[in-house]
Amino acid sequence: MTARIQILVEDKSFNPELECEHGLSMLVEGEGINFIFDCGQTGMAWRNAEKLGVDLSKIKKAVISHAHYDHGGGFKELLKYARIKTLYTGENFFNKKFSWDGTKYVFKGVKLITQDLERFHITHKICGEMLQLDEKIFLVGKFNRTYEFETVSDEFFIGMAKKKLPDDFGDEICMAIRGDDGLSVVAACSHVGIVNIVSTVAERFNEPVTRLVGGVHLRNADDELIDKTINALKNLGVRDFKLCHCSGEKICDKVNSETISTGSVIEI
Questions:
Q1: How far is CA 38 from CA 20, 22, 65, 214, 230, in A?
Q2: Which among 20, 69, 88, 102 is least surrounded, fewest beta carbons within 10 Å?
Q3: Is 114 helix (H, G, I), strand (E, B) or coil?
Q4: Over the stretch 155-178, which tens digit does the pLDDT of each residue have?
Q5: Which one, of 97, 54, 61, lies nearest residue 189 by Cα?
């Protein structure tokens, strides 16, 4: 086994003892490294961790896939449980993020600034195209925007109080794991398009991606987009789907995805 992934919080929970919220957080245990991948939106993930017997005090590294509240909002609360020494993000992580609800801009970012990291003596490491965490686990960012049918939603913006620009999610990163049975991609929300993400990882590693884990942001997508996405992913080599969070039931049903929820364990 190369890595063990446990879902600490996700949108669903089939275990009555575990809480759930709109968000995502995973504990990743590799051969040479243990870390948190995303933090959910509150401290719920850490309460669940205690119920699951996870000793967070031993965790010293955390990754936030992008600066939305449902993936990084629980980071400050994590510091009450874990002595985080290193935070990994993509580029431009500290840009303020908003969505447009039709009448006003709504803050959707993470309430975290560089001074917070300095105060807790946390080193900030930035993933560009690729950053290796251990022998078989990598972070990947700066995705190629190859597939024209995948577009970033026009509801998302970055900026300050009076000046907003469309958010291209240049801060988004994913995880790639080289397992004994092939290359796996662990995605959080896939705002840049899950096919763009998978194809970029396949190109950088020069091998096909066989397994896809996490969120693919197709919850509100129509059948045409979902079918295009599935066909493209299968053409890239993906055969094993373990989807959750923002993926939506339609694509989960069509690819016969394994049911993933709060508390689930995935072994790679």
A1: 14, 13, 6, 11, 25
A2: 102
A3: helix
A4: 999 997 678 999 999 999 999 999
A5: 97
Beta strands in the chain (DSSP E): 3-9, 25-30, 34-39, 61-63, 86-90, 97-100, 105-107, 123-127, 130-132, 137-141, 156-159, 164-166, 173-179, 182-187, 209-214, 240-243, 265-267
| Cα distance between residue 124 and residue 85, in whole Å | 9
Report, as an integer, the average pLDDT of 223-246. 98
* Cα(198)–Cα(147) distance, integer angstroms: 11
The tokens of 20 are what?
């759930």
226, containing H or E segment: helix 223-235
- Helix, strand, coil distribution of the chain in percent, nearest 5: 20, 30, 50
Round to whole Å and give the CA distance between 108 and 90. Answer: 17
Cut 0.90: pTM above it: yes
Query: Are the C-beta atoms of residues 30 and 134 closer than 8 Å to each other?
Result: yes
- Average pLDDT value for residue range 120-149: 97
Q: 14: which DSSP letter?
A: S
Give the per-residue pLDDT at 119.
96
Q: 126: how many CB neighbours lie within 10 A of its CB? A: 16
Q: What is the DSSP letter of 159?
A: E
Q: What per-residue confidence (pLDDT) applies to 161?
A: 67
Query: Are 151 and 168 contacting, i.e. CB atoms less than 8 angstroms apart?
Result: no
Cα separation, 30 vs 42, whole angstroms: 25
Q: How many CB atoms lie within 10 A of CB 78?
A: 21
Q: How far is 150 from 162, CA to CA, in rounded Å?
A: 29
Sheet holding 240-243, edge to edge: 130-132, 137-141, 173-179, 182-187, 209-214, 240-243
- Predicted local confidence at residue 206, as pLDDT: 97
Q: What DSSP character marks residue 122?
A: P
